[in-house]
Amino acid sequence: MKPSLQLKLSQHLALTPQLQQSIRLLQLSTLELEQELEKYLQENPLLEREEVEYAPQQTGVSEADSADTEKFEPDAATPPASSADDESWLGEESSYSSSPGSFDDDDNDYQDVQAATTSLREHLSRQLGLMSIPGRDQTLVQCLIDALDDDGYLTQSLEDLAETLPPELEIELEELQIALNHLQCFDPTGVGARNAQECLALQLETRPADDTQTLALKIVRQHIDLLAARDFVKLKKLCECDDEQLREAQFLIRSLNPRPGAKYAALEARYITPDVVVRKIRGVWTVNINSDAFPRLRINSLYAQILTRQRGSGLAGQLQEARWLIKNVQQRFDTILRVAQSIVDRQRQFFDHGEVAMRPLVLREIADLLGLHESTISRVTTQKYMATPRGIFELKYFFGSHVATEAGGACSATAIRALIKQLIGAEDQKKPLSDSQLSEILGQQGIVVARRTIAKYREALSIPPVKLRKTI
């Protein structure tokens, strides 16, 4: 077969570098966006961040002050006049601050967590230094301290621990047991336990001896499984006690700390800077871009002037890249704002009445409304957060499956979970509601939910089954 030349026409979609950058910026979280912008700022001398004094602002793009300078920043705006319908839940400022304490709402999705300044091992080692025991015993206690996990438990057996020590020390198991006895006298009480049962028993042993303490100690040492299963009938029989005695012992056990070392564990602070802020202004739920999440970028005026005088300076490519970035960042926030406002418009009952009023919503509905692709909506709603009077929520939170109602409508799964939580919260703890009973109650309200679905939603809410919710 002879080789030949042929012309073939075809169509295909090519992603330009600008489009690729736009898609990438859209799917980044606020923190990831800041990290990405810092990289661009370091690599491109024509791009710079404009530092401006804080003022109540709304989103917008200011016009360039000159032909050589392009800015991207929120325009200053006059705060809306107060009225009876204006719920100024953010106080006098029109934007949300990501610093701790900005919200008084208890349902915040984030909180300022202060890491422990003293670790568990440091706390225990200090106590060890104050003890008058032989040096060999001190060394063994320190070995046990180093083997503890973050909750204060000794997860290794003494036999396994002895094998890890140098053979020339000739450590006997009895010596390790003595060292463990020393450690279990340290603060916090319960540290050095091998399991939760021993941890609770160590704490009970330090309590004043009375009938309740004796009964609680017996339950923990011998019948902890029955207590976990809430088999109160069998517990009363085995412990030879009545309802009141068992109730007091149970209360005492529940007051103990099964994780004595947890308060010394260093916790990583988790912060969320919302991308948008929702407020009710004159009776209408309105979305604004959060100025704290809004980067202010511009073209460096000095380099821009050089470029206008020296066309061959080699900065033309970087100027174009800087303009692309400014435009794509602007487009990112414009898209987030449009999507967030559409979500709020459809879930306004949620903002008025809470989770029980959440309506079913799918990505396709917002995509069709805004003329965007469903994948774009998915990118916008992932790791983007909304600050509201009810707390801070990821945009994806407002989407979910639905359950059909007898009237032919649909009920959001979020609303059903909220109803289940309400019903269980108001139940008689001596006669808690079973999953079947919950299904029947919802059915009486026109919401058809199978018992298995109730169980799935209940487990998602971390609510134990009926047997474990029952009290004596």
From TrEMBL:
The reply to whether Cell wall biogenesis/degradation figures as a keyword in the UniProt entry is no
Q: Which organism is it from?
A: Candidatus Propionivibrio dominans
Q: By its UniProt entry, which InterPro entries does this protein fall under? A: RNA_pol_sigma_54, RNA_pol_sigma_54_core-bd, RNA_pol_sigma_54_DNA-bd, RpoN_core-bd_sf
What does this chain do?
Sigma factors are initiation factors that promote the attachment of RNA polymerase to specific initiation sites and are then released.
Protein's UniProt name? RNA polymerase sigma-54 factor
Gene3D superfamilies from the UniProt entry: Homeodomain-like (1.10.10.60), RNA polymerase sigma-54 factor, core-binding domain (1.10.10.1330)
Keyword set for this entry?
Answer: DNA-binding, DNA-directed RNA polymerase, Nucleotidyltransferase, Sigma factor, Transcription, Transcription regulation, Transferase
Q: Show where the RNA polymerase sigma factor 54 core-binding domain sits.
A: 110-303
**GO cellular component terms attached to this protein's record:** DNA-directed RNA polymerase complex
Which domain of life does the protein's organism represent?
Answer: Bacteria
Domain RNA polymerase sigma factor 54 DNA-binding residue range list: 317-470
Task: Report a single Gene Ontology molecular function.
Answer: DNA binding
Q: Which segments carry the region annotation Disordered?
A: 44-110
Write down the Pfam families for this protein, in alphabetical order. Sigma54_AID (PF00309), Sigma54_CBD (PF04963), Sigma54_DBD (PF04552)
